[in-house]
Write a structure and sequence with these properties.
Alpha-Beta Plaits, D-Maltodextrin-Binding Protein, domain 2, single chain, alpha/beta, 5-stranded mixed β-sheet, 9 helices, 275 residues, 10-stranded mixed β-sheet
Amino acid sequence: MATSLVAFQGERGSFSEEAAYKLLGRGIRVLPCETFTALFESVASGRARYCLVPIENTLAGSVYENFDLLLANNLHIVREVSLRIVHNLIALPGTARKDVRQVYSHPVALAQCGRFFAKNPKVKRITYYDTAGSVKMLAERQPPGAAAIASRIAAEVYHANILATHLEDHRENYTRFLLLTKTARVSPKANKVSIVFSTPNSPGALYKCLSVFALRDIDLTKMESRPLRGRPWEYFFYLDFVGNVKDDKCKKALAHLSEVTNFLRVLGCYESAKR
């Protein structure tokens, strides 16, 4: 993957870009995309070989839009990575920490740094559309007394300085990303499977689906439901479980599941992120 083009959502220097480097190394080429829809389209159209998609955060929860886009696009999960989100106070060269009077960032990032602002009541927080975009804005406009909260990669990309690090209130702040591509493949090290299915609208339908895993002692690691559009009060269920689609136990569970569902699709079989 050393020369592969990897797409991500956001400006250069985003946490998604940092996650891409963590997973694939610094030899990759990157393609920033404005929206998640454009992110998926970049791979579906062949413009990029891979896209790295945030799917859940330990504080903010699931990224629901991307669950819907997983179903809408025929892409396959081939790897995942978990990135610890470290919020840094970033300013242009020449701006000292004592000079900072206003801080720009995405509203979620600002909210996750409440203690910093409580300790610095004279510093005004200003919402911006993107964490990395706020550092980009500093580089372009150079407002006096301004700083931003963003990733360490953003400071690197825009030639800015990190004045303080670990501004986040909670250290256990992680985002899980999925690496998607057009071609399905299963690594010998793959130990996790992601699927999506829908059930008949009848009593006990979901219980029957989950029992195919319980009967075989298969560990479920995540479950998410999303509305089935056009059919009110019916849902798609997204499920992650431990296993490999080439293992006999997993094959039997999926075969059994196909008998009790209206729809079933394997989204990917891949190596789980190291904790």
